[in-house]
Amino acid sequence: MSAKILIVTGDAAESLEVLYPYQRLREEGYDVHIAAPARKQLRFVVHDFEPGFDTYTEKPGYTWPADLAFSEVDPGQYVALVIPGGRAPEYLRNDPELRKILKSFFDTDKPVAQICHGPLLTAAIDGLRGRRVTAYPALELDMQAAGATFQDAEVVIDGTLVSSRVWPDHSRWMREFLTVLRAKAPVT
């Protein structure tokens, strides 16, 4: 039986930040499940950087089914967690079921990969205090307010927490996360 990895997300998550780790981790032999507030067809978005805009733009992205609802997740069944960005973390951080899931992963020091706005979720459970992280650069003050040391870098590794800024950093993000996974939770 292969090791299971959980991706937590919702509507308005960045398409690439969900689907790239989903596919990459499956290629490595992990069994990957996507959890959301409810079992349903999720609607992702595409964030892009266009000349003349002060921030990213947003367009409709892919749809994808959630394998399970947050209330159905048993964190003990999973060896690692992936937290994509997009706008989903803005409202997901208010979900008490999701906060319980996140806390379980941090309390047991399991590998966690977060990207873009994903660290808003770990901040909501006080999981960043005293840690080094990166995130979408506009979140620097949010990361500092959560007690983290923010670094504007492609990837930041702090123990079992691997964070990254945005989807163009994917290859380095997943390469470093897989290094942590191979050490802490190898595919069996």
TrEMBL record:
Residues covered by the DJ-1/PfpI domain: 4-178
InterPro entries, alphabetized: C56_PfpI-like (IPR006286), Class_I_gatase-like (IPR029062), DJ-1/PfpI (IPR002818)
Name of the protein this chain belongs to: DJ-1/PfpI family protein
Membership in a protein family: Belongs to the peptidase C56 family.
Natural source organism: Streptomyces ureilyticus
Record CDD domains: GATase1_PfpI_1
Highest rank taxon of the organism: Bacteria
